[in-house]
Design brief:
Radius of gyration: 12 Å
Number of domains: 1
Protein name: Rab-GAP TBC domain-containing protein
Shape: elongated
Structural class: mainly alpha
Domain Rab-GAP TBC: 1-57
Number of helices: 3
InterPro entries: Rab-GAP-TBC_dom, Rab-GAP_TBC_sf
Distance between the termini: 9 Å
Helix content: 55-70%
Pfam families: RabGAP-TBC
């Protein structure tokens, strides 16, 4: 998994989801220890990018 892909995913998630959606995601998930509301989704995208490199990450 490349560092560039990791940075792209980290950059894309806040741009994709507006603040109101981020707040609702934070409330619906179990509290994260690092304060990252996208932790679960970020890990899914990282894993998927390994299985399907055509997604562009």
């Amino acid at each position: 998994f490349s560092k560039c892909a990791k940075m792209d995913i980290k950059k894309d998630l806040p741009q994709t989801f507006p603040l109101s959606l981020r707040n609702s995601m934070r409330q619906s998930q179990e509290p994260s220890t690092d304060g990252d509301p996208f932790g679960g989704l970020r890990r899914v995208l990282q894993a998927y990018s390994l299985c399907n490199p055509a997604v562009g990450y």
